[in-house]
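Sequence in, structure out. Go.
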Amino acid sequence: MTPPPKRRFSRGDWLDLGLEAVGEAGPPGLAIDPLTIRANKTTGSFYAHFASMGAFIEALAGHWRQRFTTDLIDSVSAHPASADRLDHLNRLAFQLDPRVEQGMRRLAAVQPVVARVCERVDGERVAFLALEYARSGRFSAEAARDLARIEYAAFVGVQQTEPGNTPEESMRLYEAFLELTGRN
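Output:
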């Protein structure tokens, strides 16, 4: 009996591997040798999908935006009840690996293309939160935007200042935020 053929490593596989690597090792994990060793693939496999490491980094930033922002916004937007939408968003956000977010922000410090994507992601996330707060009818547009900025700054800040938090600890802090802001 012959073993099944090895599945070809796709572009998406490389990008998923890149998110894992940046989450575990930060920017140094995104060098060609560590990636190919991690994937158990050749450099030729990598270069079959990406013309250069720069092209990979740019694609990785877009992949991170899709998986960590766009997909969440799309999922929440499909959720009908407005009051539950923010809870749904928070459940999804706390399921994501915060190390990837931290790694992408460290990568943004040394890669301008990633910095631009981070800036776009931050704007999209804050705008979505502000929209949801405004839809609740409890806040003016300005207050909704301010609350969204404060909440998002707290979310990103806790990831940066307390990187060892468990998802449960992060959720506990978020619930304290809700309680202290009267949203709970």
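Check: DSSP finds nine helices and no strands in the chain. The longest helix spans residues 53-77.
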